[in-house]
């Protein structure tokens, strides 16, 4: 089982990285957040790996930190959530926000994810709520949704808005989050 890979980025696409180490290039599926934080081609990277084996494929899923890997592995243990679905979930918000949505049984927030319906969101909440416990601190999920909608109304895509919100200070009010997100989006 592969636990981590350290090597140089050979190729960077919208869904995966190819990381070269000792003459071998590993195709590693990553979340959009990991792609945006990954370094440039030719630079070295360390990814924590989940090896997913099925009868016809062997896929690698990479994460920049162990907390992301552990949350990913919790998600794929929920019936009906596969590795690609788990990556999509990790791509929409920070782990802290996702844990808060699960611990507060906010299925509406989880259904904002493409491909996650009400029943699947309820399964995620039921199966993971006790494992996660109660998340404290940070802003409410409604404030985050309001901030997201405000950024979308200003012409940003949902993906751009979510990426910016992941980088915003969590313990500030909605207006301050919007201002900070706009600074981040303006810097691109």
Short recap of the structure:
Residues 146-188 are annotated as: Domain III. Residues 73-92, 108-127 form the Helix-hairpin-helix DNA-binding motif class domain. With 188 residues, the protein is of the alpha+beta class.
Tell me what you see in this structure:
With 188 residues, the chain is of the alpha+beta class. The protein folds into three domains: 4-63, Beta Barrel (OB fold (Dihydrolipoamide Acetyltransferase, E2P)), CATH 2.40.50.140; 67-132, 5' to 3' exonuclease, C-terminal subdomain (DNA polymerase, domain 1, Orthogonal Bundle); 141-186, Helicase, Ruva Protein, domain 3, CATH 1.10.8. It has nine helices and five strands; from the N terminus they run βββαββαααααααα. The chain has helices at 32-37, 66-76, 83-90, 95-103, 107-110, 118-132, 141-153, 158-166, 174-186, and strands at residues 4-12, 16-21, 24-29, 44-53, 58-63. Strands 1-2-3-5-4 form a five-stranded mixed barrel. Helix 2 (66-76) crosses helix 3 and helix 7 packs across helix 9. This is Holliday junction branch migration complex subunit RuvA. One of its GO terms (cellular component) is Holliday junction helicase complex. Residues 146-188 are annotated as: Domain III.
